[in-house]
Design goal:
Helix content is 14%, strand content 45%. The chain is mainly beta. The N terminus is likely disordered.
Amino acid sequence: MKISTFVSGTAGAAAMAMGALAVAPPASATAPTTATVQVKCGYWGTGTATLQAQHNGRVATVSFSTPVVWASHSTPANSLQTTMTLSTASGKEVTLSGKANPAWTLIGQPYASGPVTGAVTPGEALQFTSITSTIGGVTVHCDAISPQSPGPFVF
């Protein structure tokens, strides 16, 4: 093999790799990825909820679960219309929504929202404020009664 062929082949491969990196979506990190918050959920009471977050560019995905609210009857997957509100330290609100809940099949099974999504500003710090899920005439609503721990999500 000629050295010039090897060099031009290597240079071409390197250029293609750099071009692929230039068009690849940016790697996104959310910190923290998991947090807890104390919530008050109407007549169900108060307790701890767990939040899991991630994002890709300007789209955030957050899931919420808590044993405070539990199934009193079977509910099919993807049947709860859910809206979650997050807020910045200055009070700006961001709304995420979705209809991707897991099925509630066992009486007493803890509530899980499934992922809700919405637009965020990269670098923005957001903290859970509230969540509302509705199916038919039944509504589950939980409000934060403590700051999110270990702190707000930075998307």
